[in-house]
Amino acid sequence: MSFPGTVEYPPGELYPPDVTPPSPLQVLFIGVAPPEKGRHFYTDPSDKLRAGLFRTLPTRIKSIPDFLDHRFFLLHTAKCSIRGTTSPDLCVSRFCAARFLAREIACLRPAAICALSANIGHPVLVALSLHWNLDRPLSLGRISRAKIAGEPSIIMATKYPTRGWEGDTRRDLAELFRVLEGA
């Protein structure tokens, strides 16, 4: 498989060593690209994904400890970036997700999974869902239910929570949390 650039490996810090996934995990949010060196969802208060997600969640979140206390966690589809850019790449994301993210999801056993991207996260979840027992095909902004490693999980892909899509993301997350409360 060839990539349009050189993949940086090993990846940067995916999450700091003092940040651990909560157990049980309520919602696993899936971002797209790995963080820039020195900037990170978990360590940079000005991270755009962090700010956008915190604003669109139906529950008030002000800090990473608060995020984790609500039993939320975030990983990215791609574990390695393409040298010279932090832009997402669907090919790299699919490659990484099939090898790493699928196993992380099975190990974490989240009650719900929410991809935060229409262009990368959604197609990656669609590809991963071929190995899950979905009740219906995964479509953007709609809930599907799955069995992943024998455990039930609610699956949704929504738009990136910035760039003018905050309203769509907020609406989709409200539905996800409504279904979670009823589960």
- DSSP E strands, number: 5
Strand content: 15-25%
The CATH topology is what?
Answer: Uracil-DNA Glycosylase, subunit E
**CATH homology group:** Uracil-DNA glycosylase-like domain
> Any idea how many domains?
1
Query: In angstroms, what separates the terminal alpha carbons?
Result: 40 Å
Structural shape: globular
The percent of residues in helical segments reads 25-40%
- The mean pLDDT is 86
Overall SS class: alpha/beta
Radius of gyration: 15 Å
Report the uncertain regions.
Answer: none
This entry's quaternary arrangement is single chain
> Strands of the largest sheet, in order across it?
2-1-3-5-4
In CATH's first tier, which class applies? Answer: Alpha Beta
Number of helices: 5
Architecture (CATH level 2) name: 3-Layer(aba) Sandwich
**How is the main sheet built?**
5 strands, mixed
Secondary-structure element order, N to C: EHHEHEHEEH
Structural notes for this entry:
Strand 4 and strand 5 form a beta hairpin. The protein starts with 26 loop residues before the first strand and ends with a helix. The protein has a 5-stranded mixed β-sheet, with helices on both faces. It is built from 5 helices and 5 strands; from the N terminus they run E-H-H-E-H-E-H-E-E-H. Helices cover 33% and strands 15% of the residues. It is globular, with a radius of gyration of 15 Å. It has one domain: Uracil-DNA Glycosylase, subunit E, CATH 3.40.470. With 183 residues, the protein is α/β, with parallel strands linked by helices.
